[in-house]
Amino acid sequence: MPTFKELGLRAEIVQALDELGFENPTPIQEKAIPQVLDSKKDLIALAQTGTGKTAAFSLPVLQQLDENSREIQSIVLCPTRELCLQIASDMQNFAKFMNIKTVAVYGGASIDTQIRDIKRGAQIIIGTPGRTVDLINRRVLRLQDVQFVVLDEADEMLTMGFKDDLDLILGETPDTKQTLLFSATMPTGIRDIVGKYMKDPAEVSSGGRNEGAANIEHHFYMVDARNKYECLKRLADVNPNVYGIVFCRTRRETQEIADKLMQDGYNADSLHGDLSQAQRDGIMARFRKRKIQLLVATDVAARGIDVDDITHVINYNLPDEEEVYIHRSGRTGRAGKRGISIAIIHSRERGKLKSIERKLKKEFEQRPVPTGQEICETQLYTIVEGLGKLNVNEKQIEPFLPAIMEQLGHLTKEDLIKHLVSFEFNKFLDYYKNAPDLNSASSRGDSRDRGDRRERDDRGNDRDRGSDRGDRGGSRDRGGRDRDFGDERPARRSSSDRFLDKGKFTRFHINLGSKDNMNPANLMGLINESLNKRDVEIGKIEMMNTFAFFELDSEYADKLSSALKGTDYSGKKVDLTIAQSTGANDRRDRSAGPPPRRDKFKDKFEKNRGGSSNSSSSRHSGGGDAKRTGGAKRPRRPF
Ligand code: AMP
């Protein structure tokens, strides 16, 4: 394998790559870099996201720019703002030891700032097509000196409807330029662009045309349509360290699934076009920091997500076009890492899977839906592993030790370990006790036939399947699983009331949470004030960091929606929508039993925390397990 230096790159660039930890070129870099350095020919590169394509086009372009001129010499076009920012940041890193200026231009941000930056002079513009056209029309962007045009994720730009914009932009560039087109797939629209704008291009590829990356495994689970959500939860539970994207088809479904996951205690959130750019940025920032484990997204919103280390892509629904599946699965398995792409399908979708297999040139592997027992085993070992690695903060725990010793000092070491592990584990045992077999009737034969009743979890570990598949009994909602954020409280009415007249309430989602100085009392105040009425029934309020759910007497639903429309709260535009799903926590409350005993240890613990507005409100909640009364921001597990 050649080194970057052997590919012909200059010392300054190689030094920057060294600092980034890039030791060897990836296959697409190995093919594209010398080609662009040595030849003026246009280039078509078939490369998925995650294969190192950004460096493949950036490095040879950077090497050939005139550092002494501040004229625009290269323009990179890409489909989304996220990708645009990523490419700009990568290019700046690659050019760390060069005198190169880049400007990223994209919608949803101040055009004036971008105009100012362009006027200061830059050799490279990285832009989304819409904003680029806007800047050309304002005569700010002048592309007559451009030597290199890069079309990144060209197929995505076409499916997003940027064909006319691309035509206009390319028409502004001189005939002498070199065009580099990078695309994961080669739909016919791309051929049109190639025919119109590229002359006898060279072609390189990181793999086969329209094929998925080699390091991605493709699994499918076959369940009845009504069991899809339950299957999704089991997949998350059997992979406790999952860091993935769940693809849904519509914005509405995306929001519904994310809401349900959040209510069921998963670190999840949604990304779709109904969210403002600021909301999307916030969600992406949390996803990158791994505060969100499962990002539920539409295809459009997930375009340009280039997060490394994604372990799983889950197709909650299969897309209509095979190429879209290839794009989705390409979000995992980046930079040579292993990734798993999962399809949850029902029996009638087998044909669709087959046509994807033909495009992928790879077969899906059918996996049996994890049983309750398998999940419990996985969770148990995860808990044990986490306990073993836990850092004890001696100073913080010290004041509590006498009270702890008073309560637990009599236990033997073995008993103490059992208690500690059971504290978390019992929830899974309870929840998955009698959990039904979710494999659809038509697929059961297949998955059971696969031999010796041993199977692997998604991380490839072999393990014995228990003899009890737990086919008896109905599904239950999981009790009291902790969540990473948020709090909940039933307001005003007792929990039993809530089940008697459920239909009376409308459940709302509001884009205000504790980070916006919102708490249940303020929310009730806001509702009362907006309705100009003090006695309207408000049901359960679930307060999260950035948003909240609440129930309101349906009679006032319309009035509240119009009263809050266009208003501001804490400087934020209020966005109120009717939540599609019913609160899963209601079901949880029903089985929660009597309020937990408040003992002096917990009282002391809460007092010591200083009591945020959320934790004080949660004290009214009454039912549930000890974790739910904890406070605003908690880790999902105690470690
Ligand atoms: P890309 O396909 O350009 O989005 O790159 C995917 C990921 O691979 C990014 O995190 C890059 O920083 C990383 N990467 C690209 N080229 C190399 C390389 N030669 N060695 C190590 N990592 C790389």
The CATH superfamily of the domain at 5-206 bears the name: P-loop containing nucleotide triphosphate hydrolases
**Major beta sheet, strand line-up:** 3-4-2-5-6-1-7
How many distinct beta strands? 23
* Global outline: globular
The level 1 CATH classification of the domain at 5-206 is Alpha Beta
Ligands, ions, cofactors: adenosine monophosphate
CATH third-level topology of the domain at 5-206: Rossmann fold
Q: Which band does the percent of strand residues land in?
A: 15-25%
Count of DSSP H/I helices: 26
Structural class: alpha/beta
Sheet with the most strands, sense and barrel status: 7 strands, parallel
Rg on CA atoms, Å: 28 Å
CATH architecture of the domain at 5-206: 3-Layer(aba) Sandwich
Helical residue percent band:
40-55%
Distance between the termini: 43 Å
Low-confidence stretches: 446-502, 582-639
Mean pLDDT: 78
Architecture overview:
By secondary structure, this protein is α/β, with parallel strands linked by helices. Among the domains are: 5-206, Rossmann fold (3-Layer(aba) Sandwich), CATH 3.40.50; 373-431, no CATH class; 473-609, Alpha-Beta Plaits, CATH 3.30.70.330. The chain is built from 26 helices and 23 strands. The strands form five sheets. Strands 3-4-2-5-6-1-7 form a seven-stranded parallel beta sheet, sandwiched between helices. Strands 10-11-9-12-13-8-14 form a seven-stranded parallel beta sheet, with helices on both faces. Strands 17-19-20-18-23 form a five-stranded antiparallel beta sheet. The longest helix is centred in the middle third of the chain and has 20 residues, at 413-432. Residues 446-502 and 582-639 have low confidence and may be disordered. Bound molecules: adenosine monophosphate. The site of adenosine monophosphate has 15 residues, from helix 3.
